[in-house]
Amino acid sequence: QHWVGAAMFGRLVSRFSSVGGRRPARLVHTAFRPRVLLGLGSGVVACTAAHWTTTHAYAEPSTSAEQALEEENDDGYADMKIFSGRANLPLAQEIADNLGVSLGNISIKGFADGEIGLQVHDNVRGKDVYLIQPTCPPGVNDNLIELVLMISTMRRASARRITAVIPYYGYARQDRKMQSRVPISAADVANLLQAMGVDRVVAVDLHCGQIQGFFGPRTPCDNLEGHIVALPYFKALGLNAATTKVVSPDAGGVYRAQRFRDGLKKNGIDAGMAMIIKQRLKANHVGNMDLVGSVDGYDVIMVDDIIDTAGTLTKAAQELKSRGANRVFAFATHGVFSGPAYKRINDSALEKVVVCNTIPLDANQKSDKIEQLSIAGLLSEAIARIHLKKSVSALFLKP
Length: 399
What we know:
Blueprint: H1 2-17, E1 26-29, E2 38-40, E3 43-45, E4 52-55, H2 63-74, E5 80-84, H3 89-99, E6 106-110, E7 116-120, E8 128-132, H4 140-156, E9 161-166, H5 185-196, E10 200-204, E11 221-224, H6 231-236, E12 244-248, H7 254-266, E13 272-282, E14 285-292, E15 299-307, H8 311-322, E16 328-335, H9 341-346, E17 352-356, E18 370-373, H10 376-387
Parallel strand pairs: 5-8, 8-9, 9-10, 10-11, 12-13, 12-15, 15-16, 16-17, 17-18
Antiparallel strand pairs: 1-4, 2-3, 6-7, 13-14
């Protein structure tokens, strides 16, 4: 009956709309959406029984619709909500300040038995929610569970879209099976976030770019390049292009080092490239190192994604010095600095170790050799582009 009624309704509309030599209206199926009213000439035609509507071939948006669109563009962040867990609140506050919005009101507390409880005090129904939470130490697992619970809470509270901004993606180094009967933890974390209902993930310098593939096509994952914020710092050092080389501390990081070198070139420093080949005995323990390329008389910048215990980094710096390097700098997006990292860096041949603030530094540890740069500008611009439906890749195409 619905189909017959829709066909009769279509003929009726065609007959009326063909008056005056105009083209007939188009019959459009609205996929069984509830009551839809569309302008047809000066009248309004509606068909709610069969869920079909008609639209005039030359229909133009009404003045009120245009005004509504202009008002939405005037305040593009009206439907944006930014919340932060406890992992890196200063970074989240800086991002919110850059965007000109306030951090959402959320309470997170730990119970005596170790469980975590939270409550969102703002209305998020129909909002685009951005959750800023690195799953970093200290308390990697607590920070991960906080993120999972925040996503679940926002989904249950009817948020329109949920974007998890994860400056540091914990478990990223467990991205493949290197032995028998071990998990692929990076994939498991991705599955956990998707199961909770996250719509999009924004990460910074994933340990392996293929981690983006652990998220399905319904959950886009943006991998931002953190070296962008370090380029002005190294440009300000006054490095000479003829005597500067970028070094990858291992074969797997060559692409990352090349991207960093390309960035330096855009900033007027056309540096060379070299690579260290290392033999890792086990996690956080490195054996022999071999250098591919010459660094004799050069200022060297080692580029990596993570500095954990700094064992590899400091040993590589010593190797480069023994090969005649002048000054040795290091840049890594994520400064984990576990265990003896601070002491090793202080005692090393490194001039400066530059990291981003994806992970907060330990307030009880200090090193004059460690320089921390803010990545809030990059993250806030990425959030703005996602929210306003603009290109994110354009961030990395700028000269």
